[in-house]
Prior knowledge:
The structure is a homodimer. Chain A contains nine helices and 20 strands. By secondary structure, the first copy, chain A, is an alpha+beta fold.
Amino acid sequence: xxxxxxILAALLIGVSAFAQQALFGGAGVESxxxxxxxxxxxxxxxxxxxxxxxxxxxxxxxxxxFEMNGQKISYDAPGVAxxxxxxxxxxxxxxxxxxxxxxxxxxxxxxxxxxxxxxxxVNRDIASLTxxxxxxxxxxxxxxxxxxxxPHGTVSKVWYHSDTExxxxxxxxxxxxxxxxxxxKYPVLYVLHGIGGDEDAWVTQGRATQILDNLIARGQxxxxxxxFTNGNISQEAAPLENSTGYxxxxxxxxxxxxxxxxxxxxxxxxxxxxxxxxxxxxxxxxICGLSMGGFHTLYITLNNPDMFNxxxxxxxxxxxxxxxxxxxxxxxENVDGKLATYFSKKPAMLWIGIGRTDFLxxxxxxxxxxxxxxxYPYKYMETDGGHIWKNWRIYLSEFVPLLFK
Amino acid sequence: xxxxxxILAALLIGVSAFAQQALFGGAGVESxxxxxxxxxxxxxxxxxxxxxxxxxxxxxxxxxxFEMNGQKISYDAPGVAxxxxxxxxxxxxxxxxxxxxxxxxxxxxxxxxxxxxxxxxVNRDIASLTxxxxxxxxxxxxxxxxxxxxPHGTVSKVWYHSDTExxxxxxxxxxxxxxxxxxxKYPVLYVLHGIGGDEDAWVTQGRATQILDNLIARGQxxxxxxxFTNGNISQEAAPLENSTGYxxxxxxxxxxxxxxxxxxxxxxxxxxxxxxxxxxxxxxxxICGLSMGGFHTLYITLNNPDMFNxxxxxxxxxxxxxxxxxxxxxxxENVDGKLATYFSKKPAMLWIGIGRTDFLxxxxxxxxxxxxxxxYPYKYMETDGGHIWKNWRIYLSEFVPLLFK
Lengths: 405, 405
């Protein structure tokens, strides 16, 4: 046994010479720790640091403002807390039980933003890495975000050829548990990300595949294929997954919100219908998206009124002015006429969700006023908070159970 | 345009309140940078740090030793370099052009090991995070590890039911470009990880799907299905992807290297043959693995002599003594008899690869001596270096072109 242990230790060192740090010292503090009373403790080991703070969206938000091009922009930033040092270990325990939810946080060590080196659960958002804290609880919505011993769907990274762009592009496809061993045909939901996101965003930050697995297992949603596209049409794939190699991720990509993605969308639907066992008709197709993806959802729906029976706009970035400067202006023109055509075909559902403090609520209210004035039906959900992932996970988990009934 | 920019900025802030840091200040230094002369510059911003070092496997290795249970274990750790500070920015430039290869590195800030906060390319190995540096170069082997504009296979996370364990388990499945739109049947390669790894390891640290895409696109390998199993048989899936939620990843898992995984392997093959268009016969099946996975490969092959026509042992952890303490001793018994049976069935290839300074080279030499004495044929590759991912990527890219010809 001794010999075996020794060999195993040696093997482990071999697997990566770095791994020894995790076993034989190094960054050996435990962080984060969810305590029995629901408070959470964060730790960071560094004898020489002068000041260590923590920024996380479980702390009370800070209302901040900045000016850009002469326009004042206000937004809610995650709260900040001070860690206190004792014998080289910096520590902070929340003075409250943290509500079940999925959160992100970073440390700030003497001015440098860093992830928690003891937490291997890391999210990337554009060029920022954050550490993740998931607090699931039975009965709470966040339990949908956790992995349970239920049948799991398959999550695939799939490449399709874009005739529009002339190169291959990557998407994420979820096929529900049982898909591979059945001959049945399935309805399809298309889920679009926001600006700066990609085909990975809904799966990592959105916990979409966990939400789907859990809702389907509970019998609260129909088994469905779910397609997560990359809405940055000039990009092959998520950063580090495309042929440009290591380039710092950026939101500054060409052809964004100017009509090309919307115009090209039917080629995505065609690919899915020809490569998966789909029910290839309007009655069994849904689309939704957050922020830029909500904007995309609206215009893809209106320009293809026979394609989707269910459309969901989550904190949709409508009325941003992008429509006026677009290369493909025709995508955004004649909205009233397109709405009339769309509703004349009696779609099953238009769903709108937004946070009460979202900076886009005014343009969403104006859009709803237009629908109300014309007597067009839609479902509406207003939640606390602003333009945040917490809300988009909520909207997805409310939207999905309503589909294909 | 001004308005649009403003709104886009606001949207971006909304997507994650953290994201602003990447655009409007914060961790704003560029790191790593591959310079035109092939040297690489690393930067870290921190005004108050006292000492910042970098540990990376592109630096000359350090030969280290430690004692465990009275036994001396020597191993090669990545080299260390000092960063120099200037106006709050710490910097190090390699005094040499870094050879094309894939590397990992970490910073050490006053005793705390951290990833490079400006590099979003992060690997997890057990509980350690490291930053990744990929230096591809046309004509160099590392070009196989980069993503090119070639047809890409689909990479799926798939769950199968393990009758042995009584729960669902996760694997990674690569289907080659063209699989979904063809009716052809494909050969299958099973690829096994080392101790502390999981079904993600070969895809992240091993760059296996890039290697496959590129070799197939060059016509140097046959299109094949590749299955990456999780060899920790008591584990549902990789850490953070299983129902235990957030628990610090560990190598200390039950049922490791004691015969259960090897005994249960035919259920994996059965699942793949019944869910994919495989050529379900020995001639079209291969298996390989690194370290613990090489050990698994050997015994799965010997106990199922009609299953695999090609077997690859990469730095295989044979002769570790695990065989003597195993729960399923029968898996490891009568090796000579099993070798005789295996070779009497004329397998197409047994392939062995190991590094000259690998601590397992002696047991591998003993195993080869046994094969030589009996006149059993095998292919052998010996490389520089030890028990490291660089070698395993080399072995995979040498092994795959020899399959199914």
